[in-house]
Amino acid sequence: MEIKHIRSFLAVAKALNFSRAARTLHLSQPALSTQIKGLEAHLGVSLFMRNRRRVTLTPAGSVFQVDADALMQQLAEMELRVRRTSMGDIGNLRIGFVASATPGLVPAVVLAFKKQYPGVSLELKNVPTVQQVEGLRSGVIDAGFVRLPVTEADLSVSLVHREPFAMVLSKINPLTKKKDWGLEDLMGEPFIAYGERWAPAFYQRWTSICRAAGFTPNVVQETGEMDTAIALVAAGLGVAILPEGVTRRNRRILAVKVLSRQKIQSEIGVAVLADRQTPLVKRLIAIAKQVGQPKP
Asked: Which GO terms describe its cellular component (predicted)?
């Protein structure tokens, strides 16, 4: 039994006339009759009672009509869902993100995406950059908001947000009493850092700011979350250089100086496997770029 047999049956059941049904299906009447006979032989029942004057459904035919209508409706809905999924209108998207991207970027992207594509469900996972790379390769996530740079050859990374770094001190740090403290004043200070193991290239990026100023930062404590680093700095356990955005909610308890003249900046990108750029992923990246608006 094929789909064409069910369509032919439904056309005859609706018209109760083989000639009219054949014209509707653009078939010859003998070809249509052959299909109906084949369907009846497959089912082992008569679906129609025929004589020279009329065609009517048998009891078995009436039952089959109800189920056939439901099946064709289900098939039409299935075809629509497949097409919409292929176009990126519906589906499920699993997204990883670094926690430090949540204050402004990720919630705004999710809100814009859900507004534009309400038929897509989003699963959000708080995962460090290194683990996101592993998750992309293993298929655990479809896309990830990562701290740049990420240089893995099998990934495609789109820049979606850029901001300056900032020097972060506790308000009780003696340096804050200086009229114009700067980067060079941090030489010899104990540093609190977002752990190198979680984003190695990002770690090298912010430490290169110190090296360019003539010193290597004395990192005494690494953390897995930037909010933890901020808390430790606020407690007076050290200083930090962090993306400016993550410091905004804590200006009451921190002394912050934005490194606005530094060419080296903090960047966030959306990473995906280069060979798995689905329509859904492409739409996520497009919206993330609109929301993040990375400036040159």
From this structure: protein-DNA complex
Can you list the residues of the chain whose pLDDT is less than 70? 87-88, 90, 294-296
- State the fold for domain 3-87: Arc Repressor Mutant, subunit A (1.10.10)
Which CATH number does the domain 91-159+267-292 belong to among 3.40.190.10, 1.10.150.450, 3.50.50.60, 3.90.1150.10? Answer: 3.40.190.10
Predicted structure pTM score: 0.69
Give the class (CATH, top level) of 164-264.
alpha beta
User: Residue 295: what pLDDT?
Assistant: 57
For 194-228, the DSSP string reads E-TTT-HHHHHHHHHHHHHTT---EEEEEESSHHH
Say how far apart CA 61 and CA 37 lie, in whole Å. 13
CA dist 134 and 95 (Å) reads: 13
List, in order, residues 6 or more apart from 177 with CB less than 8 Å away. none
pLDDT tens digits along 125-144: 999 999 999 999 999 999 99
Give the whole-angstrom CA distance, residue 196 versus residue 220: 12
Q: What is the pLDDT of residue 167?
A: 97
